[in-house]
Amino acid sequence: MNQDINSYIRLKFKEKVKATLKKTLSLSFNDILSKCLQESSISETEITCSLELENWFNYIFFTNYIEDLPYDEYLQEIIIHSESNIDLISKGEKSKLEVDFLSSEDLQLSFEVLARKNQAEWNFQTPFASFSILIGGSTYRCTLVHECITQEKNSKAFFRKASQQSFDLESFSLSSKEVKLIQDLVRQKKNIIVSGATASGKTTFLKSLVCLFDKQEHTIVIEDTHEIPGPSSSFSHLLANGSKGKTMTDYCSYAMRMSPDRILLGEIRSNEVIPFVLAMNTGHKGLLTTIHSNSAKDTISRLSMLFSLFSTASNAINYQQVTKLICTNIDYVIHLEKKNVIEIINIIGADDNGAIYKTIKGSSLKIPLQHPLDLAS
Q1: Of 113, 137, 168, 314, whose CB count within 10 A is highest?
Q2: pTM above threshold 0.70
Q3: Does the pLDDT value for residue 273 go beyond 70?
Q4: Is-contact 256 282, C-beta < 8 A?
């Protein structure tokens, strides 16, 4: 009989939590349990599943299962592939955990609650969400991928530790001459793109450049996850969340009306490339951003491709013209690999064959840029 009561309360409690979550995020374990018991005319002394339900509630509402993972100060990344498959990356080494914290349905619910608690829209129409959370006292960037776009039909979560430190430029394998060059470029308010693969150190390097800014300058920082601190009160932070009027693209446009001395964009991924490049083209100096690319020269190609893909004037301006526009306004590309600066190129301009640049560091060769559609033909 006791077992039947426990099973009934388990089911009723979980249904009430799910129903309440549709209306509000103001939930209390004790309140919901009390209502379930009251509505069922059951006293708390008749059940033995109270602790189990509290653990389940904390997993769903507070994602306690993340805090319960093996944690150390070197933990860099947590990847939740499914309810039973989790990767931990520490000191560059990956270890795999097989767990049984939650069912697949419960894990999906916990992700939905996590997104809502961080004011992130995440659903079939918006399958990606990104925001910062605290794990073990450290800030992590959480990226959620919705089940609607995964082949396995289950959602995934990626938690990457955000570096809280800024390092001297020498830490990035730069000679004293190269350090002085970069310091001069920042102080001269050159437009700089920092490129590299995932986890190459782009954001960490960007923070080191920020330390070189004149504290009297009004710098506008645009991010979708807060990773770049402002060393002075002259910094204006705009945090995008993907909702209407609050996207990275919107903020790039707003920034130009805020009398900036500098604009710093956390990362170029899509259509924010348009207002960012146009800001350069209207005479704004000292613009910095990061982008994923394989090399310094590939950065120009990737920027041109993104601009062409997202420009509403794509029929009026061809790929070669886009490349010329970008190369006219970007001064330098600094490329990182494994936390080291391996390439620095000075963009001089472009002709019909592509970008023209001078290699300051590395072994980039001047290669004519072709439109991706041309390569496919």
Answers
A1: 113
A2: yes
A3: yes
A4: yes
